[in-house]
Each structure stands twice: as C-alpha cells, then as structure tokens.
Description:
- By secondary structure, the chain is of the alpha/beta class.
- The chain has two domains: 2-167 and 353-368, Glycogen Phosphorylase B (Rossmann fold), CATH 3.40.50.2000; 175-348, Glycogen Phosphorylase B (Rossmann fold, 3-Layer(aba) Sandwich), CATH 3.40.50.
- The chain contains 17 helices and twelve strands.
- The chain has helices at 2-11, 26-36, 58-62, 65-93, 106-115, 131-136, 175-184, 204-212, 214-220, 232-238, 256-262, 272-281, 297-307, 316-321, 324-334, 337-348, 355-368; strands at 18-21, 41-44, 98-100, 120-124, 142-145, 159-161, 193-197, 222-226, 246-249, 265-268, 285-287, 312-313.
- The strands form three sheets. The chain has a six-stranded parallel β-sheet with strand order 9-8-7-10-11-12, sandwiched between helices. It has a four-stranded parallel β-sheet with strand order 3-4-5-6.
- The longest helix has 29 residues, at 65-93.
- The mean pLDDT is 91.
Amino acid sequence: MVAVLRELKNKDASVEIRFWCDYKFAPQAKRIVHNFEPSVRVDRIVAGKLRRYHTLPWWRQLLRPFSIVLPNIRDLFLVVCGFLQSMIKLIIWRPDVVFTKGGFVCLPVGFAAKLLGIPLVIHDSDAHPGLTNRILARFATSIATGASLDNYPYPREISRYIGVPISDVFRPVTPERQAVLKKSIGVNSSRPLLVVTGGGLGAENINHAVAKCLDKLLELSDVVLIAGTRQYDEMRALTPQNDDRFQLHAFIADNMVDYLGAADIVVTRAGATTILELAALAKPSILIPSPYLSAGHQLKNAADLAKQDAVEVINEIELDATPQLLVDMITAILANKDRLGALSKNFHALARPHAARDMADMIVAATKG
C-alpha cells in the first residue's frame, strides 16, 4: 500500500491521502504510513469479518457457537456501524477516489463509496479472490489483480493484471551488500542468516516451532525471529536473551527490507504482498501458509508457487506435530547451493517491479473518469 501512496505523491505532491484501517491494525498502520509520510492521516473504521475456516466443514462450524456463530452475528452489526461511519467520513471529506485492497475493513467503505457515487478502485493481491473483493467488484470502476486474470471472475473490460505493488527498495542484493546488511543489523556476516516472520501480529504456531527447535537452528545459522506484537512477551520468556546468534523483535517498520535483504533463507506466511517482496529480493523462502484463513487463500498462494518450484512449503499442522521438519528443510537447503540458486532464480522470475506505478496510474485514471 505504501508503495502506491509513494507513486501517487510522485505524480502530484499536493494530493491529499488518508489511510483507513480497522482498530486492531491501527498502531502498526500508523508506524508504517508515518514512516513514509507523517502528514498522511490514519483513521480507524469499525469493521467485522465473516469467520470461515478452510479446514472445517460448514456444519462443524455451526457447532461452535461461541467461537464462530455468535462472533459472526456480532460482526454483522459492526459492518453496519462501519458503513454508517464511512458514509459520514466520506460526506465530510468527499475524496475523488476510494482505493481498497480487499481486507474486511474495505467492505463498509466500498459500499459507502458506491452509494455516494465516488469511483472505487480495487486491488486483489491473492491468486484466488476473497469474499470482500468478490462483493465489491460489481461496484468497481476498475480492478487490478496480483495474478493472471484467469484466476478471477471479474469483468475483463475493467480488470488488469499488474502484480502486487511493492516498494522499489525491494531488489536483489549482491553477496557484498548482503554482508554489509548483516553487519548493520548486528549479526555475523560470515554465517548464514535465517529470518522468521509471521506478520505484524505474529504467527503463534511458527513462533512456537522456532522456540522448540531453536538450539538446532542456531547450529545452522544466526536467527532473527520477528514474533509479532501479540506474542513478543511470550516468546521473550521462551527464548535466550544473551545469545549473540539470536535476535527477537516484536515488529520492524523502518528497515524490514534490510533484514530480508540480509537473510539467506526467509520463513514466513503466504500473504501476497510478502510473497512479492521476497520475489523481488530473490530470497530463497519457506512458506508456512495459515490453514485457517477463509477460503484457504494462503494455501492456494503457496501451492501455486510450489508448482513453479519457486518456494518450499511446510504444512502448519504437520509442523505443530513435528517442529523438526523446519530444521530438516533448512539443513537441506543450506547444504545444497544449487537448490539455493534455483529457489532464488525461480522466485525472482515472478516479480512485477512496476506494479506500484501501474496501480497509481489506474487510480488517477479513475478520478479523471
């Protein structure tokens, strides 16, 4: 998202941008957005989500009233509140265009934009469309996609495949530059580096797997674990604080590209933006997609990449039962330079370096229309 905002500012420095997100993500959003441009206003919107778990059949989900059914009913009211809130904000501000990325907070905002006659531009990052984007697509002025249009049911006349917008700072690094980056983040430049991240809030099962087999991982490489804001305190209690081969962080906003650029292997989820950032960096990566997200979009993202031999994939449920799987895979990759090179080359071939520029062009075109 920030990459698109930067391109819009490059086109017109006077453009007024506001970033809207849900309450839970607001602290991270402010840090990320204000690191790019402190003047960008970050607003919070009430929003609800539809809990649909890919690994559970619908009838079993109905048997979980307190964790699924009742929260879904409550969140329907939150969506209505978010719609009314969005209407008021849009009437007062009256922007020329609304740009959404498909998260559940986008649904009430998109509905409000349609009702007020404000052009709506959508970007769908995942290789398989999510529910919010499928609903809003019928109201959209234009739609950009992260993968080939063959993956989506959107009208071809308003859709365009551009890839996933990422910052132009994500580019392959030379071995010399990688050594410099390792020193800059405080790790040994002569040892391999493993970076593990589960996103801003963290990934509990990945964090626990790393903690359980950390001693073995440290025999192979230095380790940087970005545990997420929700799990940092727990992981601090489970991991060593005085081992110079290991770093623990809650969240990195300012120089995440340095950590990823320094890495020899990255272990992460299978979100679309993270995938394209790593592809642009040409980083050998191990994806551990969440099996619990609605429609299993991370599973599908990872499967598509695995078919192209661009990444390695570990099943999270199997990892829970056998954390040693992570150690075995990292050992095998580090021991095989040809495999490291193939993963780097095949992954980088999927990068779309001009996606942010193309996305900004589509947004500007919608305002002219």
